[in-house]
Design goal:
The protein is α+β, with helices and mostly antiparallel strands. It is built from 6 helices and 8 strands; from the N terminus they run E-E-E-E-E-E-E-E-H-H-H-H-H-H. Among the domains are: about 80 residues, OB fold (Dihydrolipoamide Acetyltransferase, E2P) (Beta Barrel); about 45 residues, no CATH class. The strands form 2 sheets. A 4-stranded antiparallel sheet has the order 1-8-6-3, with no helix packed on it. The protein has a 4-stranded antiparallel sheet with strand order 5-4-2-7, with no helix packed on it. The longest helix is centred in the middle third of the chain and has 31 residues. The termini are far apart.
Length: about 190
Amino acid sequence: MAIEVKVPLLPESISDATVSVWHKKVGDKVARDENIVDLETDKVMLEVPAPAEGILKEIIYQAGATVKAEQVIARIEASSAKASTVAKESPKEAVAEVAPAVQKTAASAQKVSTTAQQTVSQAVLSPSARRAAAEQGIEAQAMSARITKTDVTTIPSGARPEKRVPMTRIRSRIAERLLEVKQNTPCSLRLMK
């Protein structure tokens, strides 16, 4: 049975919203009340939870699309049929289904252990230093002491790459309001600031 995911009622004076980010893809399993999509309006970011447990079957509006209140944006296939088939399975079939999952878990645990050993041998970086090093293309393997963001950012590097991204609806509205305030502020008050 398909369950419709609808845009929630929007706040007063807001007629539409923009689909910002889908947190799930078609075919992904979703739990009841799990956030599956974010909608952005001029004033607020709305999280849309899954109305039921199941599998996301269809995404009707992709990121960037404009939607209205109560509009269907996705469909979820309810998982009640799957639950009934699992109950009918014999214990041997259930064990055969679980065994590969256990093997995958063991393999991933071994991989994590190897990664942890490699991390211990590297320099200890704070999270902000790790990010700054990655942004500036600096390898921290050669460093031996605890490294902070200040240490990384003081190292001279080439030109900083520039990336232009479109403004979100909220930021656009804030910019408009700031310009309105600046234009309506008397010159004497602007000089005092």
